[in-house]
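Interim report to the steering committee. The following record documents the input for Adaptive-response sensory-kinase SasA (391 residues).
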Amino acid sequence: MQAAPEKPTSSEASLQLVLFVDERPSSRKQIQQIHSYLAQLKAQYAFEIQVIEVGEQPYLAEHFKLIATPALIKIHPEPRQTLAGSDLVTQLKNWWPRWQLCVEEYQQNLPLPTEAPTTQTSKSAISSVAYSAELIQLSDEIFRLKKEKEELLAQLKFKDRVVAMLAHDLRSPLTAASLAVETIEITQNWSNGGGAPRLTPAQMEQLSKQARSQLRAMDRMITDILQASRGTSAELHIKPLKLDLGALCHEVLNSLKNRCQAKSQSLKTDIPNDLPYVYADEERVRQVIVNLLDNAIKYTPEGGKIQVSMLHRTTQKIQVSVDDTGPGIPVENQDRIFEDRYRLERDEAKDGYGIGLGLCQRIIRAHYGRIWVDSASDKGSSFHFTLPVYR
């Protein structure tokens, strides 16, 4: 008489559980109770269990969609079931007989070894948990790397535009300086050849002054671009995106209008509706606008005037100007006010024109823009800055 084929043993089709725990002091007593009760059950019935600390493997908690810990999950046999809450031991006592019955039914329904000799589904349930966690982690890593790639490509594209902007901006002062120098050379050669000089000494001095001025402008542009490329954007965590600068400015103005009204100051704007988008970090640019307007309100006397205007200066830049009717800034101090912690003597007892303008300069330079002031004592100040147009 032929022997009947053997059914799989209980170890090949065992009950498989995953226990999620955390390190909160308030959970320790409950977790100890769960461990103790599971140890009692294991002495009477064979099952597999994997204990996972949520903080060490958050991907698994996400995979199983856990909303509370500790939590006990029956992952095999199917269907999966999750027990969670403060009365976990009570729930387990209630469900344990049903889980045992589920295992028996599963074993009875398994195909015979001769029909499916390679089936080892039950053995893979626990290991598949770790596999799922790794898969989720890899998916998240791929997503993060894709985002980094997009950001780096955007930065490279931006840097290419910056080079084009710099070349464009340098062309005008370079041309002006070259023309001045060439005119001086032509006049000098004419004089050396015995001809009468075409330019008076005053005109020669004016041309020399013009050439020096244009060379200083080029030097300032190159200095700004070099300082911006030395990691300023990384230090400030600049994240430039497509930005509606006009809308941002109106938002800031609305938040400050009560302060203007309190001093009876008139606040006017000249912001074109067709202003193109800029490529900038919204929160950092907001800091600049708020700081400049804060200073304008602070230093403009009661009944004074403040104006914010924007100009599509070139195809590559937007210029923002904040004008006030305050005390103005002496010419000799107009570069130094952008230094960190530098203050005019008259302002030492006031807030403003300190760290704020230094930070503004770093933010604008990080965007490969420029910030400066036009002012004269007792005639108010006009602060200007530029930002690149979004392409």
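Confidence is low (pLDDT under 50) at residues 1-13, 116-123. The committee is asked to note this result when reviewing the revised timeline.
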